[in-house]
Amino acid sequence: MPIRRLPALLVSQIAAGEVIERPASVVKELIENAIDAEATHVGVTIENGGQDLIGVTDDGLGIPFAELALAVEPHATGKIESVEDLKAIATLGFRGEALASIASVSRLSVVSRPPGAQEAGLIDVAGGSVGSPRPAAGAPGTSVTVRTLFYNTPVRRRFLRTVATETGHVGHVVEKMALGHPEIGFTLNSNGRQTLGLAAQDDRRRRVGEILGRELEGELLELSIEDRGIGLWGMVGTPDIARPTTRHLYTFLNGRFISDRTVNHAIREAYRGLIDPSRHPTIVLFLQIDPRQVDVNVHPTKAQVRFRNQSLVHAVVVDAVRACLGGADLTPVLGLQRVSPPRASDPPPADFGRGAGPSGRVSTAQFVEFFRRLDPTQKGFVYSEVKQALADDAPGLLEVDRPREPSDRPAADVEILPAIRPVTDVLQVHLSYLVTQDEQGLLIIDQHALHERVMFERLKEAIGKGNLETQRLLMPVTIRVDPSHVELLETLRPLLRRIGIEAEPIGPAALSIESFPSFLFERNVDPGKFLSDLLARAEGGDLPGDTEAALQETLDMMACKAAVKAGDRLSPSEIAELLKYRGAVERSSRCPHGRPTTLRMTIRDLEKYFGRR
Ligand code: ADP
Ligand code: MG
Questions:
Q1: Crossing angle between the packed helical segments 547-562 and 483-498, to the nearest 10 degrees
Q2: Which CATH architecture best describes the domain 331-342+363-402+415-474+548-613?
C-alpha cells in the first residue's frame, strides 16, 4: 500500500480511541474543562448510561464567540503556550484534544457565554464537519452536549457494557472529580432522576464523607503532613472498611485523579498485615508535589504519571499512611445495630472466630450465641493468679488498680471515673479465646492471632537489631528433600542466614540442618519440618522475589508456627506474658495476615443491649 496522509477525521478518531473509551471518559474530559474554567457548579446529565446523551453545564469563564471554532479543533488549547509550560502543568487539560476527539465520534454542540458577553454562541460538530458559530441564548458559562456517542464507530459502540454499568462508570467519574474539588458543587442526573447532588463545600473532610458515605466517617483517620517536600492530606480508612474492589481507593496528585503504581503500591505496603491481601483499603489521599517533579504527559488520559523521584514518593506515602494507622486503636468493635437477642432455637454458629467476615466483623447475635453455648463445666478458669503474674512482670499495667489515696483527687472525680481494672481477671474460653476488659469495655482476644502478632514483631525487632539468637545443634538434623530443593537452598541461603538457619546439602537429596533459631526451638518447632515447609513454599512461588518481602513472609511463617494454637491450655504466666506484649507491640490489633486479634464490645453497647439505656 502506498503511503498516504490520513484524513483529518480519521486522525481524530484514532486519537479519540486513546482518550474516549466510554461515556465516562467524555464526562471526565468535560468536567475537567469546566474545572479549568474555574466553574463553581458543574451539572452532568446523561441518558441511557450516556450512550444517547451526555450534557455537562458549568458557570465558568466561557469561550469567546471568536474562539468557538478553534475550541473544537484538534491541538487547539488555551492552556499552554510553550514547551516550558509543559514542564509545570497547572491545569487539568493541556493537549487540546478532548473536544475534537469527542466531536469526531459523536454529534457535539457547545453553547458558551463568557460572563461579560451580551449573548451566548453556539457551534455544532457532527462527524468531523464543523458548523459555523452562531448567536444563541444561554446563561454565562458553558454547556456541552454530546449525542449518540460512537454512532460512526460501531466497534466502539459494541464494546460498551450495559446501561447500568456505563451509568456506574459515569457516577464514579463524577465522584472522583467531586472528591478532588470540594469547592465545586456537582449534580448528576441520569434518565431524568437526580442521583447525586453536592453543594460547594469548604470542608474537604465533609466532601469525603459525602462520597464514601456518612456511616464511614467514624472509620476514617485524617492524615495531614508535609514530608521531604511532599504534601499529603487524606482520610485513611481503618482495616475494617477494606473492600473487595479498589473502588474506594482514591489518589490525587496536585488535584488530578491518578491511578499510579508507585502510589498504590506504597498504600498496599502501609496496610500490609492489617488487611487481608485480597482486599483493598478505603482511602482518599491527596499528594501535593512541585509540578516540575512530575510528568503528567505520559498517557493520553493522564491517569498515569511519572515521578522524578519515585522512591521518595513511595517512602513518604508508606511512612505517612503507616504512621496514621499505627497511631490509631484499630481493635474492631462489635456493633449492636441490627441486633435482636438470640432465641434458643437459633442454630448455633458453625464456628465463632471463623464465622467473622474477612474484615473480622462478628455480628452481635453470633457473639451472644457464642457465650450462650459455653459449657460451664469447661469454661476455663478465672485466673486470679494472672494478676499476681502481671504484678510481678509488668507492674505498670496494674497501677490504676491500686487503691487511691483519698487526698489524690477530689471525691467527685472518683465517682465519675469508672473503676478501671485493666488486666486483672482473664478468662480462657474453649482454650482458644481470652476474655478480659479495658477501660472501654469487654475484650475478646484470639490467643493464636495475638501470639502470632507478638512473635512476629519480636522476631522482626531481633532481626533488625541483628540479635536473633541461634543455636548450634549438637546433633545436626538430617532431612530428605527433593533434588530441586537442594539447589533452592543455595538461592535461599542469604535469607536463611538472616533468620539463623544453617543447612548444608549432604548428597543429591538430603540436607543437614546445623543451626536453628533458639526461639523456634523453645517453642518446639521441628527444624526439619520447618525447613521443608519453607523450601516447598519457595518452590511453589509463594515467597516474593524481593528479599525484604520474602523475609516478612518467612517471619510470618515462623511466628505462625511458634505461636500458641487454639486448643492450647495457657498457664497464668503465659497469659500474663501475652497480655503484657499486647500493649507493647505495634499493630497488635491484627495478626500478620491482617485478621483481627482482638474484638471489643463497649460498655455502652452492652448497656444498650441489656436495655439499661
Ligand atoms: P484542553 O482542555 O486540553 O485545552 P479541550 O479540547 O478539552 O483541550 O478544550 C479546548 C479549549 O476549549 C480549552 O483549552 C479551553 O480554552 C476551551 N474550553 C473547553 N471547554 C471549556 C469550558 N467548559 N469552559 C471554558 N473554556 C472551555
Ligand atoms: Mg480539556
A1: 90
A2: 2-Layer Sandwich (3.30)
CA-nearest residue, atom 17 of ligand 1: 71
What number does the ligand 1 atom closest to the CA of 34 have?
23
Cell of 477: 538434623
The pLDDT assigned to 391 comes to: 53
**pLDDT < 50 stretches in the chain:** 337-387, 389, 393-423
Q: Structurally, what CATH architecture does the domain formed by 8-198 represent?
A: 2-Layer Sandwich (3.30)
- Residue 56 CA to chain centroid, in angstroms? 31
Torsions phi, psi for 225 (to 5 deg): -150, 165
Q: Which ligand is nearest to the CA of 72?
A: 1
Q: State the Rg of the chain over Cα.
A: 31
Three-state SS string over 29-53 comes to HHHHHHHHCCCCEEEEEEEHHHCCE
CB 442 within 8 A of CB 610: no
- Residue of 262, 266, 240, 272 lying closest to 553 (CA atoms): 272
Alpha carbon distance 274, 593 (integer Å): 7
Q: How many CB atoms within 10 Å of residue 183?
A: 11
Taking the centre of ligand 1 as the mean of its atom positions, its distance from the CA of residue 98, in whole angstroms, is: 8
Q: Do domains 8-198 and 204-326 have the same CATH topology?
A: no
**Cα 134–chain centre separation:** 50
* CA atoms of 19 and 508, how far apart (whole Å): 58
Distance CA 543, CA 310 (A): 25
Q: What integer pLDDT is reported at residue 467 of this predicted model?
A: 84
Among the bound ligands, name the one nearest to the CA of residue 79: 1
Q: Are 81 and 91 in contact (CB under 8 A)?
A: no
pLDDT in the model for residue 395: 45
Helix, strand, coil in percent for the chain, rounding step 5 = 40, 20, 40
Count of alpha carbons within 13 Å of 434, Cβ hemisphere only? 32
| Dist. CA 106–CA 587, nearest whole Å | 53
The amino acid at 405: E
- Would the CB of 63 count as within 6 Å of ligand 1? yes
Taking only the tens place, the pLDDT of each residue in 133-160 is 999 999 999 999 999 999 988 888 888 8
Q: Which of 435, 432, 440 has the alpha carbon at shortest distance from 333? A: 440
Second-level CATH architecture of 204-326: 2-Layer Sandwich (3.30)
Three-state helix/strand/coil letters over 72-105: CCCCCCCCCCCHHHHCCCCCCCCCCCHHHHHHHC
Enumerate the domain spans of the chain. 8-198, 204-326, 331-342+363-402+415-474+548-613
Q: Are 184 and 174 in contact (CB under 8 A)?
A: no
Cα–Cα distance for residue pair 374/368, rounded to 1 Å: 10
Interval between CA 150 and ligand 2 midpoint (Å): 19
Measure the CA–CA gap between 8 and 101, rounded to whole angstroms: 11
3 state DSSP class of 399? helix
Ligand showing the shortest atom-to-Cα distance for residue 97:
1
Contacts of 199 (CB under 8 A, 6+ apart): 185
